[in-house]
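Take one protein record:
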Amino acid sequence: MLGALLAGAATVWWLRGDGGVKLGDIAGYAAGSVVYRSTDGFFVVRLPDGQVLAISDVDPHNPPGRRSCLVTFRPDLKQDGEVGRFFDACTGSAYGLEGRGQSGDGLDLRHIRVERREDGGLTAWPGGS
């Protein structure tokens, strides 16, 4: 019985993995690009300077734990050489490519930690690990 419980726990741990989301190689993201990962609930942004960010799609105006309003990326809202802006249709707030609030009450989008391995591979940590 104990063996079956341990085997089940080991299987759950193995399937869960380490909590990181593999994003592929940095070369797969062009400078100035925004890729939406709908199954993971975040955007991967490669800034023009080459830095890679992961930004949550959850509107910061939602109460904690609620996902009723999500932001989208809108290339049509670009200004002064930008590639576009994040936009929250619920409040009309806009956010720059780095997720900083540019209108409304100035709340920023939540950043998700991204690690870059020496081989160029990227991993995001949505759970805050």
